[in-house]
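Bump. Still looking for Nucleotidyltransferase family protein structure tokens.
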Amino acid sequence: MSVNSYLASRASSAVLSEDERKSINTSIAALGTRLDSWFQVDGDKLQSHFRFGSQTRGTILPRRDDQHSDVDYMVVFENGGRKPQSYLDRLKKFVEGKYSTSEVYQSSPTIVLELNHIKFELVPAQHYYGSTYQIPNGPNDWQSTSPNDFNATLEEKNKANGYLIKPTIRLAKIWNAANGYVFNTYLFEKWICDRSFWLASNQRDYLFTVFDNLQATESAAWRNERITRAKKLVAEIRENESQGYPYLAEADAKKLIPG
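Sorry for the wait, here they are.
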């Protein structure tokens, strides 16, 4: 198997199975119903709630590839005017009341609900204007975000690049997770989407372009070590390919992106 074939196959396997998707959708439907039934008091009702993040973009990894893989879910409260911690406390009380046998904890700015098949991160929010919402920036302050605006940008970039951007992101996220989360996954996705791939023609080229553009200039030494090691593996793969050693190249590709 060539390096390109391995990487293309690995990217194709790094998606949610049909059973996983069905399970998530069932859990989302139940979550929505429970939210609506819980927040019924005037002044404490919800304006809306919806999923966002990598699961809506098609770049989420299954738990076997990323143990911290999660579904982001925004809960928009009808009335604002309070500090973020007030809404976080309300969400925590909700999940503790409705999911008493599941693991629940705060991981600012979210409330985490751990179910058997997936982790949900519930983000309290206030609608600001248009597609912009205010979400917690710590317990006392708010920050503006447009949660699904990146989706359209990614779709356009993916289509313009032969539908190889999303698979490339999934491969890069496998590397990131396997190496202790060198980068924030959302920012890593955006950074990859912003790269130029004009010389790339297949899955191998696209992934290697990502590593070619990484710089070992992080503040933490361990992050730089992981980046340097990845770039060295890419160089070794190219060298083995040029010397006619496809099996050695494939072995290095499996070290870079474990199966």
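The beta strands are 46-52, 70-77, 103-107, 110-114, 119-129, 132-136, 142-145.

Edit: fixed formatting.
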